[in-house]
């Protein structure tokens, strides 16, 4: 068992007050054309329009702002080559501290550039998990920086939970809300907030068939890490975190999986019909709705578009 | 001279009340990254997120709703292969009448599909202006449909003017507002509304150097039609309308021009930094701001993103 103290609704509301000056209140957009195809009402929460182009800005900012001053002054550190790295670098810059980001030496130049553009200090390491972890340990030891993990960390989950809080503040009586699930920060936070505000609402996770550890863990009732994930949804390669798994087991209705073909088709729909640039991971929930019409028919369904960081010169529908 | 009666502020407000149930109130979005590059504050009014993916939904809806019932019952007609065609077809469908759209036989399949998806009836003609006009005349004669021109028509200009009305309702004290200019419906409407609400605010038009009839007409103080326009901004090939020219001459500060290279670079910036799908025409105002920093330094500048109808499998930055 565990002895975690999970955030209460008041904690999530306080997190929102804490971070709101540093993040965008993102819009909810709709599309008649896609609704017709899906046979339900769809409300797209556009975190691709969030700072750093992803919901990760919420958790990273909340985590830094909750650090005691004596910890914060030495900076923060993480290992990541994705949206959490850029989000932590920006949040550190905006709140007056330093971010040390351990990145594999083969990380894409565009990801390194994003971290640097926010003043983050990059420490390169060999491209494997062992090297990442030992390099991070060394950085933390040398600098005294506080480690902020990308998802398996309470203040990060609490920050991601503010996204659903904004959704519920719009007054829409969602029957269901679906988010992508990788490490599980967004899904756990969304399920937690929704559990407090509207327990009747069903929260779903959606993930690629080629990285379906969340579905398998959910069914097995224990974490089954992903080995050799393979999918175009590069934001969803990680396995579920401990805290995330507990919350998801408790408050999530089900985990749906889709093929890469379905992801690309849904991604194209959002580009063409909604005029939004989204990364493949963000198309996974819509793909899941379109592949499971019976589950959602005539319901009011909230979909969190998690991010928009994709190389627009290499889109998969060229 | 002319004896046109141009819309008053009350007319624009009434147009907004008339059409608001049929259109989106589009958001204004911002980007720190682009503001840093431009040395000014930028407010992007996102008409790419409008119904049919373009501001044209406003004018077309207003024009149909203002038709007397005896005219409206026979339907509406226009010749266009662009956003006005889809906008008129949708507005006709939503308001319970029929749209007859004369399109050149070589119009892209995607444009025809858009018109058909809204129930519009397509009448094909030879791909030249003469054939378009005679075919339209024939359609109007046979059906009794009312001709709704794409921009040189008062109720269309009045409808486009509601876009700036929404912008001013946000309470932002714009120093300048810039729109693309093709036929001049959006620019004329924006200039008119802004003249009434904030006469100190400077309104600019922006167009491609390869289709610079608005700039030349503006300088010459008479309409100089464009011959053989050549630009990637396919929405801005048309020459200024009469009514549009009069309003623009009176209420617009200046017309700025940019190269196709500048348009493509600005378009890519909006995709990458704002996560928005926009058509090349919509990137023209941002390109003009970046090419004329002295004009806008430290000012609050509103930019209307006019539309998002672009083939996402053939983007110019692949």
Automatic annotation (TrEMBL), chains A, B:
<dbReference type="InterPro" id="IPR036052">
    <property type="entry name" value="TrpB-like_PALP_sf"/>
</dbReference>
<keyword id="KW-0663">Pyridoxal phosphate</keyword>
<dbReference type="InterPro" id="IPR001926">
    <property type="entry name" value="TrpB-like_PALP"/>
</dbReference>
<dbReference type="InterPro" id="IPR000634">
    <property type="entry name" value="Ser/Thr_deHydtase_PyrdxlP-BS"/>
</dbReference>
<keyword id="KW-0460">Magnesium</keyword>
<dbReference type="Pfam" id="PF00291">
    <property type="entry name" value="PALP"/>
</dbReference>
<feature type="domain" description="Tryptophan synthase beta chain-like PALP">
    <location>
        <begin position="22"/>
        <end position="307"/>
    </location>
</feature>
<protein>
    <submittedName>
        <fullName>Pyridoxal-phosphate dependent enzyme</fullName>
    </submittedName>
</protein>
């Amino acid at each position: 068992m565990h002895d975690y103290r999970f955030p209460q609704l008041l904690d999530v509301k306080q997190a929102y007050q804490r971070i709101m000056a540093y993040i965008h209140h993102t819009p909810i957009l709709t599309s008649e054309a896609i609704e017709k195809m899906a046979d339900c009402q769809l409300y797209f929460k556009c975190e691709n329009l969030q700072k750093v182009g992803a919901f990760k800005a919420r958790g990273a900012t909340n985590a830094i702002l909750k650090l005691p001053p004596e910890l914060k002054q030495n900076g923060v550190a993480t290992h990541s080559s994705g949206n959490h790295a850029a989000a932590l670098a920006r949040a550190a810059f905006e709140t007056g501290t330093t971010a040390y980001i351990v990145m594999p030496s083969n990380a894409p130049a565009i990801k390194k550039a994003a971290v640097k553009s926010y003043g983050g200090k990059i420490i390169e390491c060999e491209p494997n998990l062992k090297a990442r972890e030992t390099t991070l340990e060394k950085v933390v030891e040398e600098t005294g920086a506080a480690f902020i993990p990308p998802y398996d960390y309470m203040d990060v989950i609490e920050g991601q939970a503010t996204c659903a809080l904004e959704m519920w503040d719009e007054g829409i009586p969602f029957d269901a809300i679906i988010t992508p699930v990788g490490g599980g920060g967004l899904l756990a936070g969304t399920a937690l907030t929704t559990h407090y505000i509207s327990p009747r609402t069903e929260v779903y996770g959606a993930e690629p068939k080629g990285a379906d550890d969340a579905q398998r863990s959910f069914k097995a009732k224990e974490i089954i890490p992903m080995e050799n994930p393979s999918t175009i949804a590069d934001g969803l390669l990680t396995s579920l975190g401990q805290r995330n798994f507990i919350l998801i087991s408790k408050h999530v209705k089900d985990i749906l999986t889709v093929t890469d073909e379905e992801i690309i088709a849904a991604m194209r729909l959002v580009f063409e019909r909604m005029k939004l640039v989204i990364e493949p991971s963000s198309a996974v929930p819509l793909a899941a709705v379109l592949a499971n019409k019976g589950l959602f028919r005539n319901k009011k369904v909230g979909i969190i578009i998690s991010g928009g960081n994709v190389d627009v010169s290499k889109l998969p529908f060229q």
